Amino acid sequence: MGERVLIALGGNAMTAPDGSASPLDQRRAVERAMTHVAALISQGHQVVLTHGNGPQVGNLLLKNQLAAEVVPPVPLDWCGAQTQATVGVLILNALGDRAAVVVTRTLVDLADPAFADPVKPIGRYFSEAEARRFEQLGQTWRAFPGKGFRRVVASPEPLEILDAPAAIALMEAGYTVVAAGGGGVPVARRADGSLTGVEAVIDKDAAAVVLADAVRATVLVVATDVPAAVAGYGTGQARPIGRTTVAELRELQAAGHFASGSMGPKVQAALRFAEGGGRAVITSLEHLGDAIGGGAGTVVGR
Ligand code: ADP
Ligand code: MG
C-alpha cells in the first residue's frame, strides 16, 4: 500500500559530511540523498520533499556583504527564494523525470513575538567591528562568547504554506514535488491585505508539518544525520528512542532531552504531525525505506 510521504531533508542531504557547501559538495550530497528517495518512489509511494537551506543562505549572505559596495545586498527573503531554486534544481537533476519545484511562500504574522526578540543566528561569525557596522544598517547582531558575533533574525511560526495549492496540483498530476525549501520564503500580510517579504527565517521542520497537513501526507519523515532521536544524548545513559507515544515523547521533550537548535524542532514537528493523526519518523536517509513502515528511527503516531 503506497503512502503519501513528506520528507524533510536536513543539512546533511545537501552538504558534505563535514558541512562543506561548495557546489560540488552540494551536488554530491543531493545525488546521494535522491538515490534513497528514488527507491521509495519506485516502491509506489508518493513523495513530497522539503529541505533546509542554512549553509546555502549563509553563503549568499557572505557574498552580499563582500559585494555590498558594488551590488546592492538583497533581502533575506530573496536569499530564501534563490536557495529554493538552486537546491531544487539539484534535486530535479538527481531525480530525473516527473519532478517539479514550487517556489513557495510561507505566511507569517508581523505580530509574532519572534519579531520583537530575534534569536535565530544566521550566516558566519564576524568581528565586533564588523558586527557594529552591520548594526548601523539596521541588522541585529549578538555576541557568542569565544566565537565572535553573528547576525540574529526572527524565526516566526509558519501559519500557512501559501503555494501549497500549486504543490498539490503537481502532486496530483503525478509529479514528485519539492516545496517550501528553507521553510518557505517568509511573507506577511500588510494592513491593506497585500503580501510583502520579511527579513526572517522559518524553521524548516515547523514548515514541514504545515506542508504535510496541506498535502494530506500520511507519513512525515524528518531525515537527518542520526538514525533516531536519543534520550540522554551525549551522556552515559544515551538511549535511542524507537517506537514511542506522543505522551512519552512530550515528557522527554519537557525534560530537556532535545537540543533547541537541532533535535528540538524535529521532535516538535513529529509530535504535531502525530497529534494530527499521521505517523512521524525521525531517522537518517539510509533508513528511509524502513522508516515508511515504522520499522526504523524514532516513530510516533499511527
Ligand atoms: P539537520 O541539519 O539534519 O536538520 P541538525 O544538525 O539541526 O539536523 O540536528 C541533528 C543533530 O542534532 C544531530 O546530528 C545531533 O548532533 C543533534 N542532537 C541534539 N540533541 C539530540 C538528541 N537528543 N538526539 C539525537 N541527536 C541530537
Ligand atoms: Mg545540521
UniProtKB/TrEMBL annotation:
GO terms for molecular function: carbamate kinase activity. It comes from the Bacteria. It holds the Pfam family AA_kinase. The keyword Transferase applies. Residues 4-282 form the Aspartate/glutamate/uridylate kinase domain. InterPro entries: AceGlu_kinase-like_sf, Asp/Glu/Uridylate_kinase, Carb_kinase. The keyword Protease does not apply. Keywords: Kinase, Transferase. Belongs to the carbamate kinase family. PANTHER family: CARBAMATE KINASE, CARBAMATE KINASE-RELATED. This is Carbamate kinase. The lineage of its organism: Bacteria, Bacillati, Actinomycetota, Actinomycetes, Streptosporangiales.
